[in-house]
Amino acid sequence: MQLMENSTSLQDLSEEVRGGQTRAEDLMTSIYDRIESHDSVLNVYRSRLKRESALQKACAVDQRAASGEKLGPLAGIPVSIKDNICIRDPELNGGCASKILDEYPSPYDAHVVEKLKAADAIIIGKTNMDEFAMGSSTENSAYAPTLNPWDHGRVPGGSSGGGAVSVASGMALLALGSDTGGSVRQPASMCGVTGVKPSYGTVSRYGLVAYGSSLDQIGCLAKSADDCSYALEVIQGHDPRDSTSSKETLLESHGDSEIRGRRFCLPEAYLDPELVDAEVIETIREAESVLLKEGAVIEKRSLDFLSYVIPTYYILAFAEASSNLGRFDGIRYGVRKDTETNLKSLYSQSRSSGFGREVQRRIMLGTFVLSSGYYDQFYGRATRVRASMEKKIGKLFEEFDFILGPVSPFPAFSLKEKSEDPLAMYLADLCSVLPNLTRCPAISIPGKPTPSGLPVGIQMMGRRFEDPLLLATAKAMQQHLQYHQLTP
Ligand code: GLN
Predict the structure, then answer these.
(1) Which CATH superfamily is domain 10-259 in?
(2) What atom in ligand 1 is closest to the CA of residue 133?
(3) Please, which of 91, 158, 193, 221 could form a disulfide with 130 given CB 3.0 to 4.6 Å?
């Protein structure tokens, strides 16, 4: 795929738009040219603005710049939004890549959407995803999967696959996704872009359709850690409409940092060939040697709790999902099957026809782990294991600044390779769920690709609310790695 190389940072680009050196209209034209030549194959957007509407918005930004109006920090930047984030716009109906929200018109904007609009970004469309963000490949979309731009026979990762591909293929300059157990970082890793999940509570979840509320966090996907950091500064901040929104502000999130003297923990399990592909281990080893060369300290540790992260995550995520998805009943929300005569069959017909297989599986398992008689055995135990992990991670972070590792145990896999085997799919999250369980920030930056040219991400996880340090260190690391220059 031949794409325009765009290495200008979001900050510089929007500054150029504000100063009139770059026209938002030209930027939008080049984005729409690419959408029109690639989206019918890659299937990135679930809904998007008509070309004329997008160009009209861009021209309005140019006019305001020309008249000397003070514009926001993302002036004229074309942004894609995951389909589970609410946008009030009749051209962007539908939601969560689910049939149950077919044509659903959101009556309001999510907090992050308000923030982006106030920053004069231009939201161009909603991106494809695994239905209700449940999956690791974007194949669970109720419509069609998004394809990996590096190899059309492979998945882009999930669940924010559409968002990652929008950035990788130049169909947006910034994408917002949601990350409950890795859904921003894992597709970033498989598509060769940068993706960050901030600390839980940093970005308001108001207007994000809930999956696992204690794990969900909105994050950014862009070409570099620098761009992610710049965008995060715009969307973060306290919001009284989300009771878990933190009052801590991320000060100076756009700073610089040194690698020298930073302490990294490298869990042994992340280099275990039984768990992680050899090519991915090779990428982590290369990252390790770059960090050592730049003066970092790296110590390997065996972390016993890593073998519990998948079961703990999936019990909690399913339980929360079964409760959160109760509202889609064909009455309060969702497509209604109203051929039925009684309430019970209206519910069951609406939900059975509206939800896909994986969503139904999770609702049933989640309801089971919450049911009386089993609650303590599963859900109660998982919450205790999670609390103990948080304690252990807290202790580990007294010794280390970051935990280093892969994002996914393997590079992008083939379409249909795991879609019939839910357990194999769940194992894709082996390295990505820990930051969600412990509410810490984590980032995926592109590392050394596989010999056949597939992208592989490097994950760095930091202390909760030390997102600025994590981002600044990732930015420094990226300057030594240079892989973010690659385009498919
Ligand atoms: N793959 C994980 C799941 O299916 C994570 C998804 C996510 O982060 N939204 O639950």
Answers:
(1) Amidase signature (AS) domain (3.90.1300.10)
(2) 9
(3) 158
